[in-house]
Prior knowledge:
The chain is of the alpha+beta class. Helices cover about 35% and strands about 35% of the residues. It has five helices and eight strands. The chain has helices at about 1-5, 65-80, 120-125, 140-155, 160-170, and strands spanning about 20-35, 35-50, 55-60, 80, 95-100, 100-105, 115, 130-140. A four-stranded antiparallel sheet has the order 1-2-3-4. A hairpin with a 2-residue loop joins β5 (about 95-100) and β6 (about 100-105).
Amino acid sequence: MAESNKTNRGKRFNKPSDNSIEKVVHISRVAKVVKGGKRFSFSAVAVVGDGKGRVGVGLGKANEVPDAIRKACERARKEMVKVPLLNGTIPHEVLGRYGAASVVLKPAVVGTGIIAGGVVRAVAEAAGISNVLTKCIGTNNPHNVIKAAINGLGRLKTEEYSKYLRSKDAAK
């Protein structure tokens, strides 16, 4: 037991939990022109969620695709946000923005499903949202769209929090 402690000292391992959802959204091949020709590297965008209201997005870069995906998933686990859910949907309409991308997220009734493009669909599925209507406005760049979706989900408020804010304003 003491042997394994010595070998793993100083290293952080983010082991995926059994119920985490990992989705690779986009992989890019990037070429750098050097004296001898071109050097290729890869960047990957991944979404990690627990299906119960926590979701994160990460970008990983490496010389090989599996390493880029692993780095992206690790980053996504570190940057998870809590999403309030209400009967499998979001509590209210919200607009998320990042760069030139805007994403409109609207709650939907049970049975609607996830009406979204590939990038926003991955975020919604990983977060555990089962009924939502979305629309991407502006750019369709996956990097910006996914960050706009996370921005929108981060702006969501629960009904209890909204009541608390209203009561705080009424007390003034």
